[in-house]
Design brief:
The model has no long low-confidence stretch (mean pLDDT 93). The chain is α/β, with parallel strands linked by helices and 222 residues long. The longest helix is centred in the middle third of the chain and has 29 residues. The radius of gyration is 18 Å and the shape is globular. It has a single domain, classed as Rossmann fold, CATH 3.40.50.720. The chain contains 7 helices and 4 strands; from the N terminus they run H-H-E-H-E-H-E-H-H-H-E. Strand 1, helix 3 and strand 2 form a beta-alpha-beta unit.
């Protein structure tokens, strides 16, 4: 199952997935992460279509403010926390009961290396991503006795539409890549690999942890 807030995007991506696997494998359901009702419909629709949820990937996020925290409005601050933290909490609470009942499941929250660092331009976004780390740790403690695992992925700068303001700026991109050991930014499929690992039995003894996938940016100076 794949979900996005825009129905058009939901319809396009499953077609690409189906082409790659040679069959009708992916099903779309549109849902806005800020709507508890739409998330409920996403979970119910998934259960109706495939019967169970084995793996949940929480990947939606927003950042309506780019600049110092002194300039952010209260509404923007709340929107970031609602979309990046509270919506993950909602979705997990809706999807986890079946996993707990079966005593098997993997929950993956896509956070960011921003949660490990300070920033003069995406400060509240970073706060929300640090909260996601703790959300995963708390849920891992709660769900561990049921054999349900909860982990995070912390990407660095990746070539996505969401991060376009960062990587389309030539000077900013030059600065980022100059201090990243691999000397480049990431590609979406390089984050997907970490999700596959966390979803699979290969990570069966891993919970409450964060995998950093950033080309080495957080271990380098500068």
């Amino acid at each position: 199952m794949i979900s996005s807030r825009k129905p058009d995007a939901c319809a396009e991506e499953p077609q690409e997935i189906d082409k790659s696997v040679g069959g009708a494998a992916a099903k779309p359901i549109a849902a806005h992460s800020s709507s508890k009702g739409e998330l409920r419909a996403l979970v119910d629709g998934t259960l109706g279509a495939v019967g169970r949820i084995d793996v949940l990937v929480c990947n939606a996020a927003s950042n309506p403010h780019f600049g110092p925290m002194s300039k952010i409005t209260d509404d923007q601050f709340r929107k970031i926390l609602d979309n990046n933290v509270l919506s993950n909490h909602w979705l997990v609470q809706m999807a986890a009961p079946g996993m707990i009942e079966r005593r098997e499941g993997s929950i993956i929250i896509v956070s960011s290396i921003g949660g490990l660092k300070g920033s003069s331009v995406i400060g509240v976004y970073n706060i929300s991503k640090a909260a996601d780390f703790q959300l995963a740790r708390n849920l891992a403690v709660e769900f561990g006795r049921h054999n349900v695992r909860v982990n995070c992925i912390a990407p660095g700068l990746v070539r996505t539409d969401f991060a376009r303001a960062l990587w389309e700026d030539p000077e900013r991109l030059k600065t980022v890549t100059a201090t990243t050991p691999l000397r480049r930014i990431g590609e979406p499929d390089e984050i997907a690999g970490a999700a596959v690992y966390l979803a699979s039995p290969a990570s069966a003894f891993m919970t409450g942890q964060t995998i950093v996938v950033d080309g080495g940016a957080t271990i380098a100076g500068g």
